[in-house]
Amino acid sequence: MTEESRIRIYLDDGVEPIADYEPPVAVRLNTHGLTDGKHLFRIEAHDRSGHIGMRELPFQVRNGPGITVSGIRADAIVHGDLNFTVNAFGAEEPFEPRRAESPSPIPVWVWVLSLAIVAWSAWYAAVLWKPPPAFANTPTYVQGTMWQH
Fold first, then answer.
1. pLDDT at 1
2. pLDDT tens digits, one per residue of 36-69
3. Are residues 125 and 85 in the same domain?
């Protein structure tokens, strides 16, 4: 006995499919009814000879406001007092710069790059800078001599 081919789609740990179609099918799912966070589609394909293929497809829903946390990372090991900043902003909310931007500390690489630029500038000014001709022979700018009392 041959059955018809079917595609059944299950959501999370559901025992009843949220969709049951004859292939091929384009599925549309409104995620506004789902909670934000991790979910799982389990897709079962039944062929006419009774064989079943299965695929699991994890996904995340983020319909709520975006949440940013500055000052602590996931799985951080902490001790003592902990200070961190939390911000949330939704796409449907009117734009307000104070809420839409999440302040965070300046990364270390920016400080290192800035220090390197300042050090290079100081070296360039000390070694390679040529004074204007009007000042070239004054005691302050004469190269190779030391000012003495």
1. 46
2. 899 999 999 998 888 999 999 999 998 888 888 8
3. no
Q: Is 16 exposed, middle or buried (0-12, 13-18, 19+ CB in 10 A)?
A: exposed
Q: What is the pTM of this model?
A: 0.53
Closest CA to 142 of 24, 74, 133, 26: 133
Would 87 be classed as within a structural domain? Answer: yes
Residue 116 is given by DSSP the state H
Domain that holds residue 17: 6-61
| Three-point CA angle 119, 120, 121, nearest 5° | 90
- CA atoms of 70 and 18, how far apart (whole Å): 38
CB 77 within 8 A of CB 53: no
How many domains would you assign to the chain? 3
pLDDT in tens, 4-28: 889 999 999 999 999 898 888 888 8
Q: Which residues contact 19 (CB under 8 A, 6 or more apart)?
A: 7, 8, 9, 25, 27
Residue 96, in any domain of the structure: yes
Asked whether residue 122 falls in the same domain as residue 84, the answer is no
Q: Is residue 149 part of a domain?
A: no
